[in-house]
Specification:
Layout (H helix, E strand, L loop, with lengths): L1 H48 L1 E3 L1 E2 L2 E17 L2 E4 L7 E4 L6 E2 L4 E5 L1 H9 L7 H4 L4 E3 H7 L3 H11 L8 E3 L4 E6 L13 E4 L4 E8 L11 E6 L7 E8 L4 E5 L2 E12 L11 E17 L5 E2 L5 E7 L2 E6 L1 E6 L2 E6 L7 E2 L10 E5 L1
Parallel strand pairs: 1-24
Antiparallel strand pairs: 2-23, 3-12, 3-17, 4-11, 5-7, 6-10, 7-9, 8-15, 10-11, 12-16, 13-14, 13-17, 14-16, 15-16, 17-22, 18-19, 19-20, 20-24, 21-22
Protein backbone atom coordinates (compact mmCIF):
# COMPACT_ATOMS: atom_id res chain seq x y z
CA UNK A 1 0.00 0.00 0.00
CA UNK A 2 2.71 2.43 1.06
CA UNK A 3 4.79 1.41 -1.97
CA UNK A 4 1.90 2.30 -4.25
CA UNK A 5 1.54 5.68 -2.58
CA UNK A 6 5.27 6.47 -3.05
CA UNK A 7 5.14 5.24 -6.60
CA UNK A 8 2.18 7.46 -7.43
CA UNK A 9 3.85 10.43 -5.76
CA UNK A 10 7.07 10.05 -7.75
CA UNK A 11 5.13 9.49 -10.94
CA UNK A 12 3.22 12.71 -10.42
CA UNK A 13 6.48 14.47 -9.60
CA UNK A 14 8.09 13.22 -12.83
CA UNK A 15 5.09 14.40 -14.82
CA UNK A 16 5.31 17.84 -13.19
CA UNK A 17 9.05 18.08 -13.76
CA UNK A 18 8.62 17.02 -17.37
CA UNK A 19 6.04 19.74 -17.91
CA UNK A 20 8.30 22.37 -16.32
CA UNK A 21 11.29 21.22 -18.32
CA UNK A 22 9.31 21.27 -21.53
CA UNK A 23 8.18 24.83 -20.86
CA UNK A 24 11.75 25.87 -20.09
CA UNK A 25 12.98 24.18 -23.24
CA UNK A 26 10.36 25.97 -25.28
CA UNK A 27 11.26 29.33 -23.71
CA UNK A 28 14.96 28.67 -24.16
CA UNK A 29 14.35 27.63 -27.75
CA UNK A 30 12.44 30.86 -28.43
CA UNK A 31 15.16 32.92 -26.76
CA UNK A 32 17.80 31.09 -28.79
CA UNK A 33 15.93 31.76 -32.03
CA UNK A 34 15.54 35.45 -31.13
CA UNK A 35 19.23 35.78 -30.22
CA UNK A 36 20.21 33.96 -33.41
CA UNK A 37 18.05 36.29 -35.51
CA UNK A 38 19.44 39.36 -33.74
CA UNK A 39 23.00 38.14 -34.15
CA UNK A 40 22.34 37.50 -37.82
CA UNK A 41 20.75 40.86 -38.56
CA UNK A 42 22.72 43.16 -36.25
CA UNK A 43 25.72 43.49 -38.63
CA UNK A 44 23.39 44.40 -41.48
CA UNK A 45 21.54 46.90 -39.29
CA UNK A 46 24.78 48.44 -38.09
CA UNK A 47 26.15 48.48 -41.63
CA UNK A 48 23.06 50.19 -43.01
CA UNK A 49 23.17 52.81 -40.28
CA UNK A 50 26.76 53.84 -41.15
CA UNK A 51 26.98 56.68 -43.68
CA UNK A 52 28.38 55.92 -47.10
CA UNK A 53 31.15 58.27 -48.23
CA UNK A 54 33.04 58.97 -51.43
CA UNK A 55 36.68 59.86 -51.35
CA UNK A 56 38.97 62.04 -53.42
CA UNK A 57 42.67 62.73 -53.29
CA UNK A 58 44.72 65.95 -53.22
CA UNK A 59 46.04 66.91 -56.64
CA UNK A 60 49.50 68.25 -57.37
CA UNK A 61 49.60 71.07 -59.90
CA UNK A 62 51.64 74.12 -60.83
CA UNK A 63 50.39 77.56 -59.96
CA UNK A 64 51.11 79.97 -62.79
CA UNK A 65 50.43 83.68 -62.86
CA UNK A 66 49.37 85.40 -66.06
CA UNK A 67 49.23 88.98 -67.25
CA UNK A 68 46.51 90.03 -69.69
CA UNK A 69 47.30 92.29 -72.64
CA UNK A 70 45.54 93.52 -75.75
CA UNK A 71 47.04 92.79 -79.12
CA UNK A 72 46.72 92.48 -82.85
CA UNK A 73 47.89 90.05 -85.51
CA UNK A 74 50.36 91.57 -87.97
CA UNK A 75 52.69 90.45 -90.74
CA UNK A 76 56.20 89.85 -89.41
CA UNK A 77 58.08 91.77 -92.10
CA UNK A 78 55.42 94.15 -93.20
CA UNK A 79 55.65 97.67 -94.55
CA UNK A 80 52.63 99.81 -93.78
CA UNK A 81 52.00 102.79 -96.03
CA UNK A 82 50.81 106.04 -94.46
CA UNK A 83 50.40 109.49 -95.96
CA UNK A 84 50.92 112.80 -94.18
CA UNK A 85 47.67 114.17 -95.57
CA UNK A 86 44.08 112.88 -95.51
CA UNK A 87 43.11 111.69 -99.01
CA UNK A 88 40.30 110.07 -100.96
CA UNK A 89 41.36 106.95 -102.85
CA UNK A 90 40.41 106.77 -106.51
CA UNK A 91 41.20 103.72 -108.62
CA UNK A 92 42.82 100.62 -107.05
CA UNK A 93 45.31 98.65 -109.16
CA UNK A 94 45.91 95.78 -106.73
CA UNK A 95 43.96 93.73 -104.23
CA UNK A 96 44.73 91.65 -101.17
CA UNK A 97 47.03 88.76 -102.02
CA UNK A 98 48.66 90.33 -105.09
CA UNK A 99 52.46 90.36 -105.35
CA UNK A 100 54.03 93.70 -106.21
CA UNK A 101 57.47 95.09 -107.04
CA UNK A 102 59.16 98.21 -105.70
CA UNK A 103 57.71 101.30 -107.37
CA UNK A 104 54.59 99.56 -108.67
CA UNK A 105 51.50 101.75 -108.62
CA UNK A 106 48.98 100.62 -106.03
CA UNK A 107 46.26 103.24 -106.31
CA UNK A 108 45.34 106.63 -107.70
CA UNK A 109 44.34 109.48 -105.39
CA UNK A 110 41.28 111.50 -106.33
CA UNK A 111 42.84 114.93 -105.79
CA UNK A 112 39.82 117.00 -106.75
CA UNK A 113 37.49 115.05 -104.43
CA UNK A 114 40.09 115.26 -101.65
CA UNK A 115 40.42 119.07 -101.97
CA UNK A 116 36.65 119.44 -102.17
CA UNK A 117 36.16 117.35 -99.00
CA UNK A 118 38.87 119.21 -97.10
CA UNK A 119 37.48 122.59 -98.08
CA UNK A 120 34.18 121.76 -96.41
CA UNK A 121 35.79 120.94 -93.04
CA UNK A 122 35.53 123.55 -90.31
CA UNK A 123 38.68 123.93 -88.20
CA UNK A 124 36.65 122.97 -85.12
CA UNK A 125 35.66 119.69 -86.81
CA UNK A 126 39.02 119.04 -88.43
CA UNK A 127 40.33 117.02 -85.50
CA UNK A 128 37.92 114.20 -86.44
CA UNK A 129 39.72 113.83 -89.77
CA UNK A 130 42.96 113.06 -87.96
CA UNK A 131 41.73 111.14 -84.93
CA UNK A 132 39.94 108.32 -86.68
CA UNK A 133 41.55 105.62 -84.55
CA UNK A 134 40.80 104.64 -80.94
CA UNK A 135 44.45 103.76 -80.32
CA UNK A 136 46.71 106.58 -81.53
CA UNK A 137 50.29 107.45 -80.66
CA UNK A 138 50.56 110.82 -78.96
CA UNK A 139 53.84 111.31 -80.82
CA UNK A 140 51.95 111.24 -84.10
CA UNK A 141 49.14 113.40 -82.77
CA UNK A 142 51.57 116.06 -81.62
CA UNK A 143 52.76 116.46 -85.21
CA UNK A 144 49.34 117.69 -86.23
CA UNK A 145 47.29 119.05 -83.33
CA UNK A 146 49.55 120.74 -80.82
CA UNK A 147 47.22 123.72 -81.03
CA UNK A 148 44.20 124.84 -82.99
CA UNK A 149 46.12 127.35 -85.12
CA UNK A 150 48.56 124.68 -86.23
CA UNK A 151 45.66 122.46 -87.28
CA UNK A 152 44.07 125.29 -89.24
CA UNK A 153 47.35 125.95 -91.04
CA UNK A 154 47.63 122.30 -92.03
CA UNK A 155 44.07 122.18 -93.32
CA UNK A 156 44.82 125.23 -95.44
CA UNK A 157 48.05 123.66 -96.66
CA UNK A 158 46.27 120.48 -97.69
CA UNK A 159 43.95 122.47 -99.96
CA UNK A 160 46.86 123.03 -102.33
CA UNK A 161 46.92 120.40 -105.06
CA UNK A 162 50.72 120.24 -105.10
CA UNK A 163 50.74 118.92 -101.52
CA UNK A 164 48.41 116.03 -102.26
CA UNK A 165 50.09 113.12 -104.11
CA UNK A 166 48.48 111.83 -107.27
CA UNK A 167 49.16 108.13 -106.62
CA UNK A 168 50.50 105.59 -104.13
CA UNK A 169 53.44 103.34 -105.04
CA UNK A 170 54.90 100.22 -103.42
CA UNK A 171 57.99 101.09 -101.32
CA UNK A 172 59.20 97.49 -101.38
CA UNK A 173 58.47 94.12 -103.01
CA UNK A 174 56.08 91.65 -101.41
CA UNK A 175 52.48 90.53 -101.10
CA UNK A 176 49.63 92.95 -100.49
CA UNK A 177 48.22 91.89 -97.14
CA UNK A 178 45.87 94.87 -96.93
CA UNK A 179 44.75 97.79 -99.06
CA UNK A 180 42.08 100.24 -97.95
CA UNK A 181 38.65 100.31 -99.51
CA UNK A 182 37.50 103.16 -97.35
CA UNK A 183 35.05 105.57 -98.96
CA UNK A 184 35.79 109.17 -98.05
CA UNK A 185 38.84 110.73 -96.45
CA UNK A 186 41.46 108.29 -95.16
CA UNK A 187 43.10 109.65 -92.00
CA UNK A 188 46.90 110.08 -91.79
CA UNK A 189 46.72 107.68 -88.84
CA UNK A 190 45.15 104.91 -90.96
CA UNK A 191 47.29 102.72 -93.18
CA UNK A 192 46.58 102.98 -96.90
CA UNK A 193 48.11 99.58 -97.54
CA UNK A 194 50.51 97.02 -96.09
CA UNK A 195 53.00 94.83 -97.91
CA UNK A 196 54.20 91.53 -96.44
CA UNK A 197 57.62 90.24 -97.37
CA UNK A 198 57.55 86.73 -95.88
CA UNK A 199 53.83 86.04 -95.19
CA UNK A 200 54.57 85.05 -91.57
CA UNK A 201 52.32 86.49 -88.89
CA UNK A 202 53.19 87.65 -85.41
CA UNK A 203 51.19 89.01 -82.49
CA UNK A 204 51.84 92.61 -81.59
CA UNK A 205 50.83 93.19 -77.94
CA UNK A 206 50.77 96.35 -75.82
CA UNK A 207 51.76 96.19 -72.16
CA UNK A 208 50.51 98.82 -69.70
CA UNK A 209 53.07 100.88 -67.81
CA UNK A 210 52.44 99.21 -64.44
CA UNK A 211 53.29 95.82 -65.99
CA UNK A 212 56.33 96.79 -68.09
CA UNK A 213 58.76 95.41 -65.48
CA UNK A 214 57.12 91.98 -65.79
CA UNK A 215 57.83 91.54 -69.50
CA UNK A 216 60.84 89.42 -70.54
CA UNK A 217 62.13 87.79 -73.69
CA UNK A 218 61.19 84.12 -74.00
CA UNK A 219 57.94 84.32 -72.01
CA UNK A 220 55.16 82.01 -73.16
CA UNK A 221 52.02 83.74 -74.42
CA UNK A 222 48.55 82.25 -74.96
CA UNK A 223 46.32 84.06 -77.44
CA UNK A 224 42.60 84.04 -78.13
CA UNK A 225 40.94 85.83 -81.02
CA UNK A 226 37.48 87.32 -81.24
CA UNK A 227 37.19 85.54 -84.59
CA UNK A 228 37.89 82.12 -82.99
CA UNK A 229 36.86 82.46 -79.31
CA UNK A 230 36.97 78.69 -78.63
CA UNK A 231 40.52 78.21 -79.92
CA UNK A 232 43.73 79.07 -78.11
CA UNK A 233 47.02 79.78 -79.83
CA UNK A 234 50.47 79.94 -78.30
CA UNK A 235 53.67 81.82 -78.91
CA UNK A 236 56.79 83.31 -77.36
CA UNK A 237 57.96 86.89 -76.87
CA UNK A 238 60.99 87.40 -79.12
CA UNK A 239 61.36 91.17 -79.09
CA UNK A 240 60.44 94.15 -76.90
CA UNK A 241 60.35 97.75 -78.08
CA UNK A 242 63.36 99.76 -76.79
CA UNK A 243 61.17 102.61 -75.56
CA UNK A 244 57.67 103.19 -74.27
CA UNK A 245 55.06 105.26 -76.05
CA UNK A 246 51.87 107.06 -75.13
CA UNK A 247 48.49 106.23 -76.61
CA UNK A 248 44.96 107.55 -76.29
CA UNK A 249 42.39 104.97 -75.20
CA UNK A 250 39.02 106.66 -75.32
CA UNK A 251 39.54 109.73 -73.17
CA UNK A 252 42.57 108.40 -71.25
CA UNK A 253 46.26 108.74 -71.97
CA UNK A 254 48.25 105.58 -71.29
CA UNK A 255 51.94 104.72 -71.39
CA UNK A 256 52.61 101.35 -72.99
CA UNK A 257 55.44 99.30 -74.36
CA UNK A 258 55.15 97.02 -77.37
CA UNK A 259 56.14 93.35 -77.37
CA UNK A 260 56.31 90.98 -80.33
CA UNK A 261 55.17 87.36 -80.15
CA UNK A 262 56.34 84.61 -82.49
CA UNK A 263 53.38 82.30 -83.13
CA UNK A 264 53.70 78.53 -82.66
CA UNK A 265 50.43 77.89 -84.49
CA UNK A 266 47.53 79.65 -86.18
CA UNK A 267 49.45 80.90 -89.23
CA UNK A 268 46.76 79.60 -91.58
CA UNK A 269 43.83 80.78 -89.44
CA UNK A 270 44.77 84.13 -87.98
CA UNK A 271 44.53 87.03 -90.40
CA UNK A 272 46.40 90.30 -90.46
CA UNK A 273 44.55 92.84 -88.32
CA UNK A 274 42.69 90.34 -86.10
CA UNK A 275 42.24 91.53 -82.53
CA UNK A 276 43.63 89.16 -79.89
CA UNK A 277 43.73 88.92 -76.11
CA UNK A 278 47.08 87.74 -74.78
CA UNK A 279 47.86 85.96 -71.52
CA UNK A 280 51.56 86.24 -70.75
CA UNK A 281 52.90 83.55 -68.41
CA UNK A 282 54.95 85.03 -65.58
CA UNK A 283 57.63 82.61 -64.39
CA UNK A 284 57.71 78.81 -64.44
CA UNK A 285 55.10 78.39 -61.73
CA UNK A 286 55.36 76.74 -58.33
CA UNK A 287 54.03 73.32 -57.28
CA UNK A 288 50.98 73.27 -55.04
CA UNK A 289 48.44 70.85 -53.60
CA UNK A 290 44.83 71.65 -54.41
CA UNK A 291 41.48 70.17 -53.38
CA UNK A 292 37.93 70.99 -54.52
CA UNK A 293 36.25 73.94 -52.83
CA UNK A 294 33.34 71.83 -51.60
CA UNK A 295 35.64 69.64 -49.49
CA UNK A 296 36.69 72.57 -47.29
CA UNK A 297 34.54 73.24 -44.21
CA UNK A 298 34.68 75.83 -41.42
CA UNK A 299 34.07 75.30 -37.71
CA UNK A 300 32.47 77.72 -35.26
CA UNK A 301 35.76 79.58 -34.95
CA UNK A 302 35.99 80.00 -38.75
CA UNK A 303 38.93 77.60 -38.89
CA UNK A 304 39.07 75.50 -42.04
CA UNK A 305 39.21 71.72 -42.04
CA UNK A 306 38.49 68.62 -44.08
CA UNK A 307 37.36 65.12 -43.14
CA UNK A 308 39.78 62.30 -43.91
CA UNK A 309 38.84 58.65 -44.19
CA UNK A 310 40.96 56.59 -41.76
CA UNK A 311 40.23 53.02 -40.63
CA UNK A 312 36.50 53.32 -41.17
CA UNK A 313 36.15 56.70 -39.45
CA UNK A 314 35.77 60.31 -40.56
CA UNK A 315 38.68 62.13 -38.95
CA UNK A 316 38.67 65.93 -38.75
CA UNK A 317 41.87 67.45 -40.16
CA UNK A 318 42.69 71.17 -39.84
CA UNK A 319 44.10 72.81 -42.99
CA UNK A 320 45.55 76.16 -44.04
CA UNK A 321 44.45 77.36 -47.48
CA UNK A 322 46.21 79.63 -49.96
CA UNK A 323 45.56 80.68 -53.54
CA UNK A 324 42.08 80.20 -55.00
CA UNK A 325 42.04 78.70 -58.50
CA UNK A 326 39.25 77.92 -60.92
CA UNK A 327 39.46 74.18 -60.21
CA UNK A 328 40.13 74.23 -56.46
CA UNK A 329 41.90 75.86 -53.56
CA UNK A 330 45.55 75.57 -52.54
CA UNK A 331 46.36 73.67 -49.34
CA UNK A 332 49.39 75.28 -47.72
CA UNK A 333 49.42 73.06 -44.62
CA UNK A 334 47.56 70.04 -43.27
CA UNK A 335 47.42 67.55 -46.15
CA UNK A 336 49.78 65.25 -47.99
CA UNK A 337 49.54 63.49 -51.30
CA UNK A 338 47.67 60.22 -50.86
CA UNK A 339 45.38 61.43 -48.04
CA UNK A 340 41.84 60.13 -48.51
CA UNK A 341 39.55 63.16 -48.37
CA UNK A 342 35.84 62.56 -47.83
CA UNK A 343 34.13 64.03 -50.88
CA UNK A 344 30.67 64.47 -49.31
CA UNK A 345 31.52 66.06 -45.94
CA UNK A 346 28.06 67.57 -45.58
CA UNK A 347 26.85 64.12 -44.42
CA UNK A 348 29.33 63.95 -41.54
CA UNK A 349 28.02 65.25 -38.21
CA UNK A 350 30.90 64.55 -35.82
CA UNK A 351 34.62 63.87 -35.66
CA UNK A 352 35.63 60.17 -35.58
CA UNK A 353 32.22 59.16 -36.90
CA UNK A 354 32.00 55.65 -38.35
CA UNK A 355 31.70 55.70 -42.11
CA UNK A 356 32.09 53.26 -44.95
CA UNK A 357 33.21 53.62 -48.52
CA UNK A 358 30.58 53.55 -51.20
Amino acid sequence: MEKNIFRNFFMKGDIFLNKVLKKKLIVLSIIFVIITVIIYFIPAIIKNSIILVNITYPKLTKYRQFMNCDGEIKEENCKEIYLDVPVIIGRLYVQDGDFVETGQKLADIDKSSTINALSKINPSDAISVFLSSEDISLNKISQFIDRKEFLEENISKYLRSDVIPSAIYAPCPGKISFITREIGLVSPFSAIASISQNNKKIAFITVNEENISKIELGQIVYLTSIAFPKQQFSGEIYDIAPRARKIIKGTNIQTVIDAYVKLDDGQDILKNGYTVTAKVMLGEGRPMIIVPYENILQDNENKEFVYLYKNGRAMKQAVVTGAELTNGVEIVQGLSMGDMIIDNPENIYSDRQFVRLS
